Amino acid sequence: MKRRAIFFSSIAAAMLVFMAAAVAGAERENKTSSLGALWSSAKEEGDDLGGPPTTVQEEEERHLDGGFSTLEGMLQWSIGHSDPEKLKEAALDIERLSSQDLKQRQELMDKLKTPSDAELMKIAINDLNNLSISLDDRHRALQELLILVEPIDNANELHKLGGLTAVIKDLNHSNPDIRTISAWILGTASQNNLFVQNQILELGTLAKLMEIAHSDFIEEAIKALYAISALIRNNPEGQQLFYKEAGDLMLQKILSNSSIDIRLHRKSVFLLADLVDCQLQSRSDTQLPFSSNHILLKSVVDLTASADLDLQEKALYAVKSLLMLRSTDALVFKDICELDLVLGRMKQQLLQLILDDQYKEYALDVENLRKEVELIFHRKLEKGKPTFTQQLGLTALQ
Ligand SMILES: *[C@@H]1O[C@H](CO)[C@@H](O)[C@H](O)[C@H]1NC(C)=O
Ligand SMILES: *[C@@H]1O[C@H](CO)[C@@H](O)[C@H](O)[C@H]1NC(C)=O
Ligand SMILES: *[C@@H]1O[C@H](CO)[C@@H](O)[C@H](O)[C@H]1NC(C)=O
Ligand SMILES: *[C@@H]1O[C@H](CO)[C@@H](O)[C@H](O)[C@H]1NC(C)=O
């Protein structure tokens, strides 16, 4: 809040100087356009600093600080309160300015320039490291960082500026909103960015995020899961670490809990499918812990019966990928997950849905996917049989 008040008052001072100069140079320059340019560039900057939606309360606080709630308001005020004679006088004064004064004015103008993203990140990180900062200010600093780390170049700078350490520390904060936004920042910074993914993984943050994913504060759990996915996506080492930290149990716990928020189910199913696809693409023979986790497999199959169409489709897709893993056993899908029954019921439901114009297109798509899953499942069952009898044969020989 202090920072912003100072920012606005420095604009106000500069604006008055600038207006006086504009009057002086009225013959040479187009006054409206130069003022207009400053106005709009300052406004842009103000918006940037404002970050996420400003609350009514914040607006009020700004007034209490003696600042202006908007730059337009301030401009109107300064124009309304300016005496044309005085402005002209000021203009003459400016013409007489010594070079020292001019330099000062230049410095003032330089300050008005949009601070670089790195500078803004430094300010926010400095605030995070300040233990006497208020909860509101901490929240605001985190929100600013959340926006700042979106561009990949900024994300790459974050650790160098001490940002990762500061944000990771806030995963431990007693306030769930602070923890939520901290997890969100880590996810945003590491999204599609191997460099930042590895930096965060090396700081040992994955286990903490996996713990937070079980939080009773749903928003926090969702953002933690988002961060976990962003952190290990297309990152084989990250995925190994995830398995080592019992990632399959984390997913099992979420997927098998029928009373949990559906967004957590969606995110978990998506993560699971992504991990399995990654394994399929790598053609690696290492066995994923999912393959033998029957509770997890059954939970995913059960979610294909979800009333939420999006979740239903995601779960069906995950089942398809799981079936394609060489290490999963078709008999587990048949006997434990009762996939035949589930697919049969789903077929009936989709045939009904196809009759409804609103859902027809979706239902046709999912029915195609369902048929594909059925085919893969039955082929896998066929393939499984000889191995099974061979095993029986071997046992008999021993
Ligand atoms: C001054 O700038 C304004 C806005 O760009 C423009 O509409 C106007 O024609 C300009 N006037 C002169 C005298 O150049
Ligand atoms: C820390 O925050 C307090 C309260 O906002 C402020 O007075 C102090 O100057 C800050 N310290 C640093 C080092 O920024
Ligand atoms: C978070 O808290 C735990 C337990 O109190 C502690 O072991 C850990 O070092 C803390 N992590 C950070 C980053 O402060
Ligand atoms: C299932 O989720 C609910 C809601 O988040 C939670 O309160 C409950 O403890 C969870 N149950 C288990 C067995 O984890």
UniProtKB/TrEMBL annotation:
Cross-referenced SUPFAM superfamilies: ARM repeat
Annotated keywords: Signal
Cellular component terms per the entry's GO annotation: endoplasmic reticulum
Span of domain Nucleotide exchange factor Fes1: 71-158
GO MF: adenyl-nucleotide exchange factor activity
Pfam families according to UniProt: Fes1
Signal peptide limits: 1-26
Stored Gene3D superfamilies: Leucine-rich Repeat Variant (1.25.10.10)
InterPro entries the UniProt entry points to: ARM-like, ARM-type_fold, Hsp70_NEF-Inhibitors, Nucleotide_exch_fac_Fes1
Highest taxon in the source lineage: Eukaryota
UniProt keyword Transmembrane present: no
Protein name per UniProt: Nucleotide exchange factor Fes1 domain-containing protein
Protein's organism: Salvia splendens (Scarlet sage)
Source taxonomy: Eukaryota, Viridiplantae, Streptophyta, Embryophyta, Tracheophyta
